[in-house]
Each structure stands twice: as structure tokens, then as C-alpha cells.
Amino acid sequence: MLLAALPVAAASPGPDAANEQARRLIRQTMQDARIPGLQVAVVKDGQVVLSEAFGLANVENGVAATRSTRFPLNSATKAFTGVAAAQLAQQGKLDLDAPLARYLDALPPAWQRVRVRQLLAHTSGLPDILDERGLLGGGTEAQAWQAVTARPMDAAPGQRFAYNQTNYLLLARIARQSGMPYERFLASSQFGKVGMDRTTFGDSYDLVPDAATMYSLAPRATEAADTPPRLSHWFYDMPPSLWAGGGILTTADDTARWLAALADGRLLGAPARTRMWTAEPLADGRAGPWAAGWPVLQAAPDRQVAGIGGTRSAFIVYPDRGVAVVVLTNLVGANPQRFIPRIADLHAPAATAP
User: Are strands 331-332 and 215-216 parallel, antiparallel or unpaired?
Assistant: First the structure.
């Protein structure tokens, strides 16, 4: 009777059948959403069970997307920064509950009492260094820093969730507790350990070999809002000071290897990983929507944590099911986080009550 009361997992097809169903789903989704190019990878029980590329990395020149094509993670990079912070904490080099003043000099007085965890979870209350036009004030990185540090706090630390890039600019500086710059620390402590040979940093203005061209179906700024959708180039600027919040270019293969290494303890011990994936509470005790670098899509049952970037790249981890899915695309607005759950269900359905 006790066993009968427990949730049971719905029957799932074998791996070959699940992969074929996933391929059909992806092809149909690409057709419906007009996604030019896409990579997908599925990790199940620590093994990569599917990794493929579809469509075109560059439409105008007919360049096929391959498993070696680099796609930007954009804000999904924040999950890697979360792992970096957890690694430093595990090594005793960083106290995630410490105020910023312990690690960073010359901050505005109101910023100094913000805790490191609040940067990771976007509950810091700091003003954003970006606005709708890009860097604050439309000038250089140095000018944007001067502008943002002159602004008042948006909220008291921990009072509310507010997504912003100032948090991750500061986390890149804090990562120097490793003894090296942020990008070098990630290369040595994550990319190199996992074998992420195709992973680098940059944006669409940088000359990155084998990088997919980015596209959008949205009207251009000079066109009327009701202009029929047509595929156009999309350019994004990610200066080095903001790499910790959105600078990684990678492949689904590399990301899948990273997720497998995260699952089996090669990057973090189980307690540190669990804490990293636990939603950061707000000052009133409610759970915020983010953990340490990871959006928490669902806390319980069937835990789901994610990396989501630029409305074109995403990965979702289902720790209780032992499955993770990566989808990288080159279309702004593809929103793969919306169809990743269907791919996950094919390989490891969620438990359902009898």
C-alpha cells in the first residue's frame, strides 16, 4: 500500500526511439518557428545520449550547422559563473555570505553591504549598468561604470528580485580571488577539466571561427511594427567586462560534457551543487526565482534549474530525473526553454501520481 501511494514515472521509449522522436520534434519546431540553425544534446544518467546539429549556421552563404559550430550562450553564461563562485567557496577562497566590501575596494558605500549570494541571485538591489540602448550613457565601459556607481540603489539588498548585469560585472571582479582573471579561471577550472575545446568568449562583432550568424524575425527599428516578418541579421555587443553575464560561445556537445561533469562531481561536490541550485530567499523569507547563477524553474516536485540566454539558447537540468537537455539556436526569439521540456519528457518522463 505504501508503494502504491508513491509517484511513478510514466513509461518512456527506449533511447533510440526517444532520440528519433526528439529529432522529429526539433525539425517540426524549426519549421514552425523558422529557426535557421540548431544544436541539441541530451544527457541522461551522466551520459550524452543524443547530440546533433540541424539547419544552417549561415543562411545567406548556405553554411550548414555542425556539431562544431559555436553558438552564443548569452545570459546562460551566468550558470558557469555560478559554478565558478561555488568552486571558489568550496576551496575556501570565497565566502558567499560575505559583503562585497570584503573583496572589492572603492565601491559606493550603499553597495558595500550587498552579499555575494545576492549578486548571483539578482537580489542585490543595485542599479543596472545596461539600459535599453546598451551600456549606460551610451559611452565606454569606463563611462558606464562611472554612471552606474553615481546612481542610488534600486532597492535594499534582498528586498526584491531584479535582473541586472551589474551583479555579474562585480562577480567577474570577485573571481580574481582565484588568482587569475575571470575568463582564465573558467578556462582552467571548468573548460579544461571537462574537455570543452570549442568554448571561448566573444560577441557578434568579434571574429570567432565557426561562429553561427545570428538572425531575427522582428521588424528593424526603421520599419513599422506591422511589417511582415523576414529574416535579418542580429548584432549584439558583449564587452569583456560583462563576459561573466553573457560572453560564452560554445557548442551543445561542450555544454553537455559540462553538465555531465557537474552531475558526477568532477566540478563540484554534491553539497555545493545542491546549495548552488537552491533558490535564494528574499528578506521576507519567500524564495526568489533564481539560485546562484541559475533560474529555478521549479523547486519541487521534479526540480528544474536552467540556463537561459538571449531568447535563443537554453539548457534545463532535471536533477531528480537524471536528465538534462541543451538547445542552442541562431534565432532571437526561438526560446528553446519552451520546447526543451518536451524533449526531456521523451527521455525521462516526470513522475506522475497513480
Answer: parallel
Rg (CA), the chain: 20
Q: Summarize pLDDT for 177-235 with one digit per residue, the tens.
A: 999 999 999 999 999 999 999 999 999 999 999 999 999 998 887 888 888 889 999 99
| pTM score, whole prediction | 0.94
Q: Say if residues 123 and 280 touch (Cβ distance below 8 Å).
A: yes
- pLDDT at position 354, please? 43
Between helices 77-90 and 166-174, what is the axis angle to 10°? Answer: 40
Report residue 287 as a C-alpha cell: 524564495
The CA–CA distances, whole Å, from 104 to 92, 114, 295 equal 17, 11, 26
Contact 334, 39 (CB under 8 A): no
Q: How far is it, in rounded angstroms, from Cα 234 to Cα 218?
A: 10
Helices 340-347 and 15-33, axial angle in degrees (round to 10): 170
DSSP 131-199: ETTEEGGGS-HHHHHHHHHTSPPSS-TTS-----SHHHHHHHHHGGGGSS-HHHHHIIIIIHHHT-TT-
CA angle (299 as vertex; 296, 304 as ends), nearest 5: 55
Phi first, then psi: what are they for 52, rounded to 5°?
A: -150, 165
Q: Three-class SS of residue 272? A: helix
Task: Return the C-alpha cell found at 65.
Answer: 550547422
| 293 within 8 A of 120, measured Cβ to Cβ | yes
How, if at all, do strands 323-329 and 313-318 pair? antiparallel
d(CA 97, CA 293): 15
> By C-alpha distance, which of 75, 134, 122 is closest to 311?
75
* 187 vs 1: which has the higher pLDDT: 187
Q: How far apart are CA 295 and CA 309, in angstroms?
A: 11
Q: Which residues, 6+ apart, have CB-to-CB distance to 222 below 8 Å?
A: none
